[in-house]
Amino acid sequence: MKAVKAWRKWGCLTALLLACAVCCAPVITVMSAAGALASRDESVPVDAVGGAAVGIPERMLAAYKNAAANIRSVSPKCRGMRWPVLAGIARIESNHAGGRTVTAAGDIHPRILGPVLNGSGVGGNLTAFADTDAGAWDGDTRYERAVGPFQFLPATFRANGRDGNKDKAVDPHNADDAALSAALYLCGRGRNLADRAQLKKAVFQYNHSDAYVSDVLSWIDRYEAAAKTVDLSGVTGTVAAVLKAAIAQKGVPYSWGGGSPNGPSTGICCSPGGQNGGAVVGFDCSGLALYAFAQAGVTLPRTAAAQAAVGRRIPASAGIGALKPGDLVFFGYTPGQDSTIYHVGIALGNGEMINAARPGTTVRVDPVSAMSGYAGGARIL
């Protein structure tokens, strides 16, 4: 087994960038015709995040959610399974059945087949695996091939395969069957996947590679951050308008220099890490702030350092607890010197912020402590 006008010329860049500083840095769950499986895991919250927010086709996301919600029907001792775990695996294995058609019933066309495991070295396979399914799933009667969106070996799927859509057939090329089967395999004999150490062991079992584990965990973390719900009860008026606008962008890609008062946009080339924002539609940190405040009728400067000069400054010495929802949150190379500010987020309260962190991530909810060099905030509203 194994997502140029003057106001956007510089992204969230400050004058420090010139010295090579790093820039900031209705959903329908598809059930089977027979309905949802029994024994839902009530310990796992069911969120309403849509596929567009996390870059996953809706039908595949539905399969992940259904499998996570229903895993205890086939693995009663399993705990902590949630859809981002399955999405992290499927993102690496097949890019969520990328380039394929997924029917309402979950069937994937054309089939997803891995390299022929004949020991030739193609795809990294150095060991020959003799056929075990008479070619039924992989179309090869001599050697094995990994199959489906979760890239099961036929022998492994035979041991773990489950009927995820209750059509009385078990098929690795069906999204629901494959997702529930992957959930069962990851759960083992009753893992608690909410425990990071046990989650790592489960992913390593899926593919014995530390690099693979790191990649999958990175995607799991991204999906969980994008899906995290935010409680805005008690937040009203223009502050609520700003936060709702920013939160609605969760899952939108980071784009160096991207973002305008009208929404996500292509950015510019290139970040110190090499991202060409001109090839990505999204936001950088100050672009997200610019957009969110524009939705409440407030115009902000384009760069993070310039935004620090707007409103009432909240010194870093006051601590993170001094921030209120809607405040801008700043980070600098030398806290106390606004000229060194390199990043901005928008405070949500409870020590969290909505954040366009860096190239390769998406807009997400992060702890304020996730970024280094806390430099205080600014109260605009």
Keywords:
381 residues, alpha+beta, six-stranded antiparallel β-sheet, two-stranded antiparallel sheet, 10 helices, 27% helix, elongated, disordered N terminus
Concise structural overview:
This protein is of the alpha+beta class and 381 residues long. Helix content is 27%, strand content 10%. The chain has helices spanning 51-54, 58-70, 83-94, 154-160, 175-187, 196-206, 210-227, 237-247, 285-294, 304-307, and strands at 101-102, 108-109, 265-266, 281-282, 312-314, 328-332, 341-349, 352-355, 364-367, 374-379.
Task: Explain how this protein is built.
This protein has 381 residues and is α+β, with helices and mostly antiparallel strands. The protein is built from ten helices and ten strands. It has helices spanning 51-54, 58-70, 83-94, 154-160, 175-187, 196-206, 210-227, 237-247, 285-294, 304-307, and strands at 101-102, 108-109, 265-266, 281-282, 312-314, 328-332, 341-349, 352-355, 364-367, 374-379. Helix 2 packs across helix 3 (83-94). The longest helix has 18 residues, at 210-227. It is elongated and about 70 Å long.
